[in-house]
Amino acid sequence: MPYGRTMITERSAPAAALRALHVPGDPLVLPNAWDVPSALAVERAGFGAVATASAAVSATLGYPDGEAMPVDEAFAAIARIASAVAVPVTADVEHGYGLGAAELAGRLAQAGAVGCNVEDSLEERELLDADRHADYLRELRAADPDLVINARIDVFLLGGDVAEALRRARLYAAAGADCVYPIGLADEAGIGEFVGGAGLPVNVLRSPAAPAAPRLAELGVARISHGPFVHREVMAAHAELLGRLRSER
């Protein structure tokens, strides 16, 4: 189906609903999903939105993380999830799978996602030029004014500091991002400094090293992602179950 104003209009209400859930101090919590059953479980548990996790989706489809999924398979997985749930869906699209900004916006719309994460590094090995990445986000915003853009900042995965992360956050905010995601930032002092200087809602990864959700709320975080960790716990529980079944033989 071609991407056009009709499709954008149909997505305006769920996009606005997703955007409104980003409240500093009362964060949107996202136990990231990877397939239809996990997305339905998130919805049935009462969470206000469903987010995909690229690492978990990749693993489910038999690919390593890091844009190794064929782009058609990546968006087919997003589309299956979006068609199965009634809550807004935001998709982890890594660095965009090599798509131009307008094409990425169109693929997201066709899949039924109203939000996305976009990374500013290449496979978590090399930071992209911040100004060029801001231009990409600006084009993405122009292609779909409703799209809820969560700009992932990979500085802390590559040995950077809060000052550089904030510099990027401000560039991405000016380019039209709705939220910034300093993945890997886990210490309270750093989170507090980043939240205070970012200038727009902040997403924090709820990794084992990060503060608990109530403390993140106190620090002013507006969105809490669980990334691949829910999938990993589910798979660990599955392995434990299989071990028990094996022992019953």
From TrEMBL:
<dbReference type="Pfam" id="PF13714">
    <property type="entry name" value="PEP_mutase"/>
</dbReference>
<dbReference type="InterPro" id="IPR015813">
    <property type="entry name" value="Pyrv/PenolPyrv_kinase-like_dom"/>
</dbReference>
<dbReference type="InterPro" id="IPR040442">
    <property type="entry name" value="Pyrv_kinase-like_dom_sf"/>
</dbReference>
<dbReference type="GO" id="GO:0003824">
    <property type="term" value="F:catalytic activity"/>
</dbReference>
<dbReference type="InterPro" id="IPR039556">
    <property type="entry name" value="ICL/PEPM"/>
</dbReference>
<protein>
    <submittedName>
        <fullName>Uncharacterized protein</fullName>
    </submittedName>
</protein>
